[in-house]
Structure formats: structure tokens, C-alpha cells
Amino acid sequence: MRRAPAGGVVSYAKVLCVGLVGVTGHLVEVEADLAAGLPAVVISGLPDTALHEARDRVRAAVVNSGQRWPNRRITLNLLPADLPKFGSAFDLAIAAALLGGSGELPLLPLEHVVVLGELGLDGAVRPVRGVLPMVAAAARAGVGKVIVPAGNAAEAAVVPGVRVRAVDTLHRLVSFIRDGSPLIEPGSDGPPPTRGGPDLAEVAGQGLGRRALEVAAAGGHHLALVGPPGAGKTMLAERLPSILPELDDEAALEVTALHSIAGLLPPGGRLLRRPPFQAPHHTATVPSLVGGGSGLARPGAISLAHRGVLFLDEAPEFSRGALEALRQPLEHGRVRLARSRGGAEYPARTQLVLAANPCPCARPAGDAYCECPPQARRRYLSRLSGPLLDRIDVQVRLPPVRAAELMEATVESEASATVAERVAVARQAAAARWAVLGHRVNAEIPGPYLRRPPWRLPAPDTAELRARLDSGSLSARGFDRIIRLAWTIADLDGRDRPDREDVREAIQLRTGDAT
């Protein structure tokens, strides 16, 4: 879009772009107005530092691409003006609007087209983070065409209903606008990635741990594993993604968008179909776990593990502040980060897995050779606060691995593929049952629904559970989580409703005294 004053010289142009706030994209109009006066470039519309620096990048890119830089007063405005703008993805749109406003380019080919990309000083168009949610936002706004950096073309092409074209230089974009030269087509998908990685068949023994892992996978429950070194805590946790179902289209788009914002997408631009796995070091800070940073708050490990697994190995060694910061996201499935220039919200519906030694000395043989006094043992595990553990559905203590279990043939252990089949059937049963409520797995069901007809269990089946609640040894939150566990156990065993034995096993898995 361009405007010519009475003298016939074009002085105004507009190009569409997209800005991100959190994982949500917003359509942005990049306006350029060129007027007589002292040569200068003014950018308005709540730009951040990277955008303020765009004036120098764009000037060098325009000149080095063989175009004439207008020696006039240039005003660039990013609408809506009250929406904070972050990053360098506006560079290419700014250059196109500026050249259109100066009369160098007829911008009719860019009508109703979103333009994204960062410019190098030599005129190269470089990839940017967050292209997937940007293109998805353009599609929601009714824009059917986008131009993106060549390095982001495959990523952008996964959004349905949008025609994607790519550029590698500003010169290519100018040639397209001026002469109709073709742009770069997104490459065709290569072969789908093979499903490899750790397998449950490699875990020796630990029948209790394997059962807890299967129940957690089938119901989407959080899991805590306590045991001596070498008991298999880390091996079990690392194999949880191998028994989870692949992500459907909606979940895959969510997960891929988050990794796009973080700049962690693998080459090829495919949708991420496997549940993600995040295992931060125990020195991780609060922002690295839940998200943060200056300017635009970036997603943390709990959001990068959305629809997958967040594993905290040596959990008592994490700072108390970092662990406590997980409580609200675990409860609500979202992270809300408030900043002075605006807030950001990221999804965080993940399965948390905690692993801990029973005491500071962590003797491999367990309690038999432990030299820690009872007070030291209690103090060590008390680093995992009661409110945090109350949100962990499955809490089991793993015994040391025996020689007979370690030396037996691994072919006798069930492989991940076999367990994954049972998990998939159980999840399908839960999804069909709770579809009317809009939930997928048992762990997501609000407690009140499970305590009233038609889902309330008979009083004789919950007698032990109610007694624990009345005695104070179990919280109301724990009561609901045990009921959810019982439903998951019933789904795994192919029953329509839990019975007394299912509730009893759920109590054992929750309290950690299963045998």
C-alpha cells in the first residue's frame, strides 16, 4: 500500500509482519513515511533494542543490495503501537516498506502478504526464531501468503492453509517485487525420523518401577522415584517418552511452536511428533526452569517439556526456589510470566519425574550400609517440600538391583513397544470417557467430577481412602489423585470402572509403600 502527495512522489507504504508475545502471534503493520527534512530514521511502536538497531542493519542491507537509500526523514511505525515488539524478524518488512515508500518498488505484489526475516549487513536474509507461531498467527488472521527466510521455509510450510515462499537475500525479494522473479519453494519433506532411543528392555529387574512408569504414562501422572544409586531411577525416567503415544496434530503444533521460539528445532522443519524430554542440571535457575529473561520472556524447561517429560535428577540438590516455582505450573498447566513491558504465557502441561537418593551418603547398597543418622535422612528428603510432593501422583521407593536380576537375559524384559501398546489402549479408553469434558488423560480430570455421579466410586471401594483422609494422613488433593490413579489402573487392566483392588494399588503407588 502506497500514498502519493500532490507532487506525485510516493511517501508512504505499508507491509504486513507478525510480532510474538509469548507463544501468541499478532499481526503487525509496518508503516514507512518519508518526508522532507533532516535525514534521520525514527522507529515507533514500542520497539526493543534489536528493533532500534534495525535502522543500521536495514540501511547497510539496502545499499549493499544495489538499492538507493532515500536521503529523507524516515518514520517507521509498527501497528498496533501499544503492543511490545521484540526481535529482528521485522527487518525484511521494514526494508520493503521503506523502498516502497521511496518509490523504488511497487508494493502491489506484497498486498495481504506477511514478510518475515532478519537482514545481514550484506543483504542476506537470515533465519529467525518463532516462525511457526508467526505463520500460524497470520493464518488465523486470514492472511494466506507469507515470505520467510530460506532457513525457515520447511518450518513455515507445516502450517496448513498458507502458501509459503522463501528468500535468501534482499535482492531476491526486490527482484520478485519489481520483475516477478520466482521466489524459493519450500523443500519437500525427507523420510520421517525413525523412532529410536532408550528402551525399557535395557532395564534390569525393577518390576515395581516398571509398573509405576507404565501407570504414569497411561494416565499422564507425575512420578517420584526414590532409591539408592544404580537402582535404575535415571534409566526408567529416560525411557518414559518411549512408551508415550506420538503427539497428534494439535499437540505437535504446540510443541513445535515452543521449540521454534526457543531456537531448538532440529534441521528439516518437521513437526515434532515425539514427546519432548527435558533434563536440566540441578544447578538450574528459576528462569531456566519456568521461563524468563530480559525483554521478551523465553520459555523455560517446563514449557519445552510441554506434552512430554520434565526429569529432575538428584531432585533434592535443586534450589528450593526452583522447585517451589514448579508448583503453580504443575497445577494449572500454564506459566504466566509478568514483565514491566507486558506479560507472556506459555503452555506447561508436562509430566514431572523426580529422582532422589534416600540420604546424603547414597551408599549403593541402600539402607543396609547407610551411615546417615535418621535426622540427616529426614533433612535431605525434606528439601522436597510437602506441597510439591502432594502434586506428585506416583511416589515409589526402588530397592537395590540384585545380582540375579542384573545377570538375567535382557530378552526376558518387556520392550518399550509392548508397553506402549498397552499405554495407547488405556489412553484411548480415557479419552473416549472424558471427551465430553474436553480432557484427554485421567490426570487432567477435576476432582469434583470424580466425587459425584456417575463417576463416584462405591463407598466400600473407597473406605480405606476415606479413612486416611479423615485421619489427616492424606490431603484432599491426594484423595483426588489416588482416585485418578485408580481409573488409570482400571484402564490398563481393561475394566470400565475401578474396583477395591485398583484403589488399594493406587494408594500403594501414591504413598510409596507398594510391595
UniProtKB/TrEMBL annotation:
<dbReference type="Pfam" id="PF13335">
    <property type="entry name" value="Mg_chelatase_C"/>
</dbReference>
<dbReference type="InterPro" id="IPR004482">
    <property type="entry name" value="Mg_chelat-rel"/>
</dbReference>
<dbReference type="InterPro" id="IPR027417">
    <property type="entry name" value="P-loop_NTPase"/>
</dbReference>
<dbReference type="InterPro" id="IPR000523">
    <property type="entry name" value="Mg_chelatse_chII-like_cat_dom"/>
</dbReference>
<dbReference type="InterPro" id="IPR003593">
    <property type="entry name" value="AAA+_ATPase"/>
</dbReference>
<protein>
    <submittedName>
        <fullName>Magnesium chelatase family protein</fullName>
    </submittedName>
</protein>
<dbReference type="Pfam" id="PF01078">
    <property type="entry name" value="Mg_chelatase"/>
</dbReference>
<dbReference type="InterPro" id="IPR020568">
    <property type="entry name" value="Ribosomal_Su5_D2-typ_SF"/>
</dbReference>
<dbReference type="InterPro" id="IPR025158">
    <property type="entry name" value="Mg_chelat-rel_C"/>
</dbReference>
<comment type="similarity">
    <text>Belongs to the Mg-chelatase subunits D/I family. ComM subfamily.</text>
</comment>
<dbReference type="InterPro" id="IPR045006">
    <property type="entry name" value="CHLI-like"/>
</dbReference>
<dbReference type="GO" id="GO:0005524">
    <property type="term" value="F:ATP binding"/>
</dbReference>
<feature type="domain" description="AAA+ ATPase">
    <location>
        <begin position="219"/>
        <end position="402"/>
    </location>
</feature>
<dbReference type="Pfam" id="PF13541">
    <property type="entry name" value="ChlI"/>
</dbReference>
<dbReference type="InterPro" id="IPR014721">
    <property type="entry name" value="Ribsml_uS5_D2-typ_fold_subgr"/>
</dbReference>
